[in-house]
TrEMBL record, chain A:
Keywords: Lyase, Metal-binding, Zinc
Source species, domain of life: Eukaryota
InterPro entries in the record: Carbonic_anhydrase, Carbonic_anhydrase_CS, Carbonic_anhydrase_sf
Name the record gives this protein: Carbonic anhydrase
EC supergroup of this enzyme: lyase
TrEMBL record, chain B:
Gene3D superfamilies, per database record: Carbonic anhydrase
Catalysed reactions, semicolon-separated: hydrogencarbonate + H(+) = CO2 + H2O
Protein species of origin: Neurospora hispaniola
InterPro entries referenced in this protein's UniProt entry, alphabetically: Carbonic_anhydrase, Carbonic_anhydrase_CS, Carbonic_anhydrase_sf
The name this protein goes by in its record: Carbonic anhydrase
GO terms for cellular component: cytoplasm
Binding note for cofactor: Binds 1 zinc ion per subunit.
Residues bound to Zn(2+): C45, D47, H101, C104
Length: 265, 230
């Protein structure tokens, strides 16, 4: 039986919202621009405003954190003692860096439940030691049972990769999404509506990244030996906050890729 | 919780969360779908005990996130670099926060002389370098937990140095006052403290900031404040 823990999971713990609106009273969003067109006095005041604003947004984080920690202790005096004893997460979450998808909050998972890697457009690249280390550690050392690759509609990274533009330092990273497009060129080109094509590319990107996880030695060896972890592809939808399970057929993918990518010795 | 239960829990839990959020504020998701303008780029550890948005008491849309093994900042790592580029140059975040934490598995591995195997040793190399650069200080610490904690803090300081030399970050600091902070999450009490490195502390000593709800002590005293709270 599934017992859903009580909600709210984590309401904002302090009553004052982030002083986001303060920015609108500033003469310009960037100090660089108004530096040139204002008097020295104005410049000084604006600088002070910005410094104060930065300090406040910064302080807020520490205040929130303090209240959050106190709240956990009030609920369970041993909360942090247990947490400090070690981690035993069931999940590895590979998601997008996008601020709107905090893995734990949207799934209701608690600290200790999910090992998390987040990068631009939730990519799993063969030569990226960063994500490869995460997968290896999660599978071999933490022995996670599930690996979730979670994308989201409206992904800025995917959008950027559909744009005919030189994006400098981001090129090598976003190239991987252009490659996903090339792999599914026929299907994507057949979609006339641009928005629909973009949404489909988001899904296909998740699907391809799941395949990339299956291609790793860590995954293949652990699955052969233990029967886990298994792979899931999800897409988060901002419009309703819901996760869509793409029902990635893990066993078929494994069988397919092992003709060429078999690393089980 | 069995493996199967956790999986179904997360999906059903998401359903409940989405319902709750929409009920609480019908504009929540439409607003979220409109775009993101986070003020914070958080670079932290993948460790399951450090869920950034949760421990910061923030909401979806507030924090842009990169999490890797042992929050290592490797100058040529294109993964981290792409995240920084997007967050600082495109989203124009106002704060970059690099966060280390106590009881870090990566820190423990770097202090050990055993090879972890696979790609992990290569990834952990910057942390190993921190170990050898501070060998004397670290060896003088007798308590193992303390030693792991200390190397994790030194790792944040080393990471901050790399971040402060990143061209995009340097430009943003000069042009629009971007702030870079090195912080540390103590899992045994759930508190985050400043490590006294980064932009706000360049060339300055400890200082106290009085916020609306209390005072915040930066630098060395932060540790004392945490001890007092325990």
């Amino acid at each position: 039986m599934i017992v859903v823990r009580h909600y709210p999971v984590l309401p904002r713990t302090t009553s004052t919202p982030l002083p986001r609106l303060r920015l609108t009273i500033l003469p310009s969003a960037t100090p660089r621009r108004f530096c040139s067109s204002h008097t020295a006095d104005d410049k000084d005041r604006s600088k002070k405003d910005i410094t104060m604003y930065l300090q406040e947004t910064h302080d807020k984080v520490f205040e929130n954190n303090k209240s959050w920690a106190a709240e956990q202790v009030a609920k369970d005096p041993d909360f942090f003692k247990k947490l400090a004893a070690g981690q035993n997460p069931e999940y590895l979450w590979i998601g997008c860096s996008d601020s709107r998808i905090p893995a734990e909050q949207i799934t209701g998972l608690q600290p200790g439940d999910a090992f998390v890697h987040r990068n631009i457009a939730n990519l799993v690249c063969n030569t990226d030691l960063n994500v490869m280390s995460v997968i290896e550690y999660a599978v071999k050392h933490l022995q996670v049972k599930h690996i979730v690759v979670c994308g989201h509609y409206g992904c800025g990274g995917v959008k950027a990769a559909m744009t005919p533009k030189d994006l400098g330092l981001m090129n090598p990273w976003l190239r991987n999404i252009r490659d996903v497009y090339r792999l599914h060129e026929k299907e994507l080109d057949a979609i006339a509506d641009e928005e629909a094509r973009y949404e489909r590319l988001v899904e296909l990107n998740v699907y391809e990244q799941c395949r990339n996880v299956v291609k790793t030695a860590a995954l293949q060896q652990s699955y052969a030996e233990n029967g886990f972890p298994i792979i899931h592809g999800w897409v988060f939808n901002f419009r309703d906050g819901m996760l869509k399970d793409l029902n990635v057929d893990f066993k078929t993918i494994l069988k397919d890729i092992q003709k060429i990518y078999n690393l089980t010795n | 919780m069995s493996a199967d239960n956790t999986f179904h829990y997360a999906l059903s839990s998401n359903n409940a969360w989405a319902g709750y959020k929409a009920h609480q504020n019908p504009q929540f998701f439409p607003k979220l779908a409109g775009g993101q303008s986070p003020e914070i780029l958080w670079i932290g550890c993948s460790d399951s005990r450090c869920p950034e948005t949760t421990i910061l008491g923030m909401q979806p849309g507030d924090v842009f996130v990169h999490r890797n093994i042992a929050n290592i900042i490797s100058p040529t790592d294109i993964n981290t670099t792409a995240v920084i580029e997007y967050a600082v140059a495109n989203l124009k975040v106002k704060h970059v926060v690099l966060c280390g934490h106590s009881a870090c598995g990566g820190a423990a591995a770097a202090l050990s002389d055993v090879r972890v195997g696979g790609v992990l040793d290569t990834w952990l190399l910057p942390l190993k370098t921190v170990r050898f650069n501070h060998a004397e200080e670290l060896e003088a610490i007798t308590d193992e937990k303390e030693r792991i904690m200390r190397i994790a803090q030194l790792n944040v300081e080393a990471g901050i140095k790399v971040l402060m030399n990143n061209a995009t970050i340097r430009e943003a600091i000069a042009e629009r006052g971007l702030e870079v902070h090195g912080v540390f999450f103590d899992i045994s009490c759930g508190r985050i403290k400043e490590l006294g490195c980064g932009t706000a502390h360049a060339g300055k000593g400890d200082h106290v900031v009085r916020g609306k709800h209390g005072q915040l002590v930066f630098g060395q005293d932060g540790e004392a404040a945490i001890a007092a709270a325990q």
